[in-house]
Amino acid sequence: MGQGQPVDKDQLATPPAASTFTTRTGQMFPILGDLEMARIARFGVPVRYEKGSSLFRAGEPAPGMFLLLSGTVIATQRDGLGHVTPITRHGPGEFIAEVGQLSGAKSLVDCFAEVEVETLLIAPEKLRQLIVAEAELGELITRALILRRVALIESEASGTVLVGREGDAEVIRMQTFLRRNGQPFQLRTSDHQDVRDIWHQFDSRHPHLLAICPNGSVLVDPDEAQLALCLGLNSGVSVDKDYDVVVVGAGPAGLSAAVYAASEGLNVMVLDCRYFGGQAGASARIENYLGFPTGISGQALAGRAYIQAQKFGAEILIPAKVTALECEPSSTAPKRLRMADGSVIRSRTVVIATGARYRRPEATNVAELEGRGVWYWVSPIEAKRCQNEHVVLVGGGNSAGQAAVYLSAHAAKVTMLIRGHSLSTTMSRYLIDRISATPNIDLQVRKEISGLSGDIANGLNAVKYFDRDTGVESQLITQNLFLFIGASPETEFLDSCPVHLDRSRFVTTAGEGRSTLESSVPGVFAIGDVRSDSIKRVGAAIGEGAAVVAQIHKYLEEAAIVPQEVR
What we know:
- This protein starts with 18 loop residues before the first helix and ends in a 9-residue tail after the last helix.
- The chain has 4 domains: 9-155, Jelly Rolls; 160-231, Glutaredoxin (3-Layer(aba) Sandwich); 242-357 and 488-566, FAD/NAD(P)-binding domain (3-Layer(bba) Sandwich); 367-485, FAD/NAD(P)-binding domain.
- The protein is an alpha/beta fold.
- The chain contains 14 helices and 29 strands.
- A hairpin with a 5-residue loop joins β11 (209-212) and β12 (218-220).
């Protein structure tokens, strides 16, 4: 086995400067007693490691979770530049893993034996079985795995190193991809001493962005799929089998369907071309979702659902773009989903949960300035750009209201432009009251943007808008415009399957003789925002995700198809 990276052992007494490491250590690194270890033993196999041997290394597939029986193990973070930061020393009774081990993803840390050690190795499948079968232990382990991932993200000392100009559209696109998929990363400007020499090696290609993966490989202006491949985000997923359910879309509806279907023993695959959470994942705070009286961010809610789906055995493939759904309406044969990479996934049923894409206003220069001052979501990345500045936000729905309130804590002023006479018909009362009580939010009614000023090199510099009653045009000087004006359904991939769509291309359901969420093609269902006449709320989408599973069972039963899991 390979040798571990040398570490100054004195450093191990002081973990990295990340709030989660220092404030929730007991929950992150619990020590199990003999009875708890005995309950885990039936899920693992004994493995012994010699002094200095590597249990796993960053950038390589981790074999699962280790329960340490004797000896000590040192865990360290390592980024793509080779920087090593100590995390902790594990002793007997401690387990070594983070959430990536639920799916067999590549490791984000290095771990090596300080002395000769004895361990129990719990492979990803067995780890999921353990968490479900041993509820109390499962809760303790799952909480620790989540907190460890959060700490890795907060520490900014592991994962991918992004190199480029802060605020550049390509840099922000990759920051968003990694952040929304719960991946740690760090950002360096091209003149930073750590990366200056690497950047100069690629000067002739005039890059916007370099991505340095944990294994040290360098990608020049990568797309999401290339970066995901380098990071091994989908390394633990195999598509060479028939599934009971394939869910297309990992928003609230899709993740809900995955959780309920997988928890009931169905073989589930979830596909999304961007990141989990959908549009809801970009919400700064959702305050009217049942059970969260103080609110919860869309990213946090989606992150919990993502891990919950994996806990029950759902396989999740991100990014993965479906280009066509091939189906025969009169046949119970598996449906075929053709992917952008040329692969084909087969499934007995398909749940369409693709939601909708952000809608552009009919104004000049919008497309050209997307990612260069024009945004369709709000996150800490965009909020940082707006610190003490004047920003413009267009839209009157709940997402727009949540974004305005969130931005008001960072920007000097937020000007909201809406087409209607008031917010009362489009926004929840609690948000309307909060906007009214926020002094630096300026609501302008009966206004519509007509064009943007700026260029690709320098970004947005002004927003032009007109009064819908008088026609008078005005201009606001700003470098950041946030658009929340609705969305169009993501249904292009359905053109190859005779699924009925309404005039706006939303999927119609509950036809004659059909279940309420089944499309015109038997075995193909639609839930969430992509479904015609659906209620565009997170709670409603999650409810449909739960309800569709009963209808899937009914279809499989009537078609005399035995679910894959119980064969």
